[in-house]
Amino acid sequence: MKHLFFIFLLSLCVSCEYFQSKQQTGTVIAEAEGSTLYLSDIENIFYPGITPEDSLELLKNYVYNWTCKCVMATKAEQMLSKQQLNVAKEVNEYRMSLLAYRYEIYYVQQKLDTIVSNEELLKYYEKNTPAQTAPTSSNYVKIVYMQVKQSANELNKLRIALLENKDRQYLDSLCLIMNVQPDYKGNQWLDIDEIPRTLPFSKEQCNYALKNNISMLEEKIGVNAYFLGIREIKKKTEYPPIAQLREQYYNTIINQRRIELLKNMEKNAYNDALDNQRLKIYIDE
């Protein structure tokens, strides 16, 4: 504990770049149930610009969660049956999901066309903008969106953070501990009607949340849970001009392209495996 306390005090005096020093890779941060957490294991939890005080708080939270996991895993090994301890299937499913997710990110980075012409933006604007002679009242929101495994630790803490609309620093730190990537959609004002077109939430869900002042939506699909946090709300009595919507429409068009790109990639990979007999399905039509 004295050694750990020294590390904590040290974090108050130095920036996170210090934690990334190669000379510190052998430093022990914590030990629990025969497992050891080294400084080199937690280098990536610190983000650029984090203050020494926030580094300390983030480090404390990470170490606490890590030690709890070690203790609970040991307790499970002592108390559960062999059948209950057999997690090979779940681990393999998680591995496949994680690899597929990482490949999707790689594929999108390599293949996604991010150039949107003025003509395409204007066409989208004309298709999705109500007549200027009939202005309507619209709700605009700033949101945060994330995809999380339903089995993830700290899931309830995430729900509470979104419901209480915790500040971004707290939310980022929590997501970092959970290994979740929050998407703030560029911190831009979004038309509430755009959300159902790109995210797994219905128009009815969004309108109900706004009407009842609910700042968090959750949708469960398969093994994943999808969260939408409503950070800010404002109303407008007229539709913004295209110049104001340019970035919003650009992001929407790019996201639609991304979804279509991934659908085609998955379909082509599936068909290729089927054609080359790397995939066989033994179900009668």
Describe the structure in your own words.
The chain is α+β, with helices and mostly antiparallel strands. It folds into three domains: 2-80, no CATH class; 94-123 and 241-285, no CATH class; 137-236. 53% of the residues lie in helices and 15% in strands. It is built from eleven helices and six strands. The chain has helices at 2-13, 16-19, 52-79, 82-85, 88-111, 118-128, 155-163, 168-178, 195-198, 203-211, 242-275, and strands spanning 28-32, 35-38, 138-149, 190-191, 216-221, 224-236.
Descriptive tags:
285 residues, two-stranded antiparallel ribbon, 3 domains, 15% strand, alpha+beta
TL;DR?
The protein is of the alpha+beta class and 285 residues long. The chain is built from eleven helices and six strands. The protein folds into three domains: 2-80, no CATH class; 94-123 and 241-285, no CATH class; 137-236.
The helix tally amounts to: 11
Radius of gyration: 23 Å
Strand content: 5-15%
Q: Name the strands of the widest sheet in spatial order.
A: 4-3-6-5
What percent of residues adopt helix (DSSP H or I)? 40-55%
Order of helices and strands: HHEEHHHHEHHEHHEEH
* Distance from first to last alpha carbon: 64 Å
Q: Please mark out the parts with pLDDT under 50 across 5 or more consecutive residues, or reply none.
A: 1-25, 132-137
Count of all domains:
3
Indicate the mean pLDDT: 82
Q: How many β strands by DSSP? A: 6
Structural class: alpha+beta
The gross shape turns out to be globular
